[in-house]
Design a protein that fits this description.
- The protein has about 140 residues and is mostly helical.
- It is built from three helices and no strands.
- The two termini are about 30 Å apart.
């Protein structure tokens, strides 16, 4: 359904409608920017998580090597094994934090982006329609 531009009967109404539509358009533009920022943040988080995971894997290998050293006392052996377990638990936490969103979450983000773009298109067309209606009116 298209807007009824004939409801705008004066330049003042057209100007007010233009201001309102421009404001609405600005809110969707900011929302679109927010979606882009969220995507960038997720990408950075993934990269940061991958680096943290690689570092933690190295720490685990080192700790496993220390736990396997010959000549450790039973207490030193237990401390070394406890350290390996702690590092493995930290690794699991990094893995949980770094998981990508589920398929439905990713899908809904694309729906949201399409909705924003649809609104921007409608509002941009409305601005053109208001301008055309204003051009038909006398001062």
């Amino acid at each position: 359904m298209n807007p009824d531009y004939s409801l705008l009967t004066t330049w003042a109404e057209c100007d007010a409608a233009t201001a309102d539509v421009n404001f609405e358009l600005k809110t969707y533009s900011y929302r679109d920017t927010g979606l882009d920022l969220a995507d960038a943040r997720a990408d950075r988080s993934q990269a940061s998580g991958a680096a943290a995971l690689a570092k933690k894997d190295g720490e685990i290998l080192t700790a496993q090597g220390q736990a396997a050293l010959p000549g450790l006392t039973p207490q030193q052996q237990q401390d070394a094994l406890d350290n390996v377990e702690l590092l493995q638990a930290q690794r699991k936490k990094i893995m949980r934090s770094n998981r990508t969103s589920a398929g439905t979450d990713r899908f809904l983000k694309t729906v949201d982006a399409a909705q924003v773009q649809g609104q921007v298109d409608v509002l941009t067309a409305a601005l053109a329609g208001i301008a055309a209606q204003r051009a038909t009116l006398s001062a």
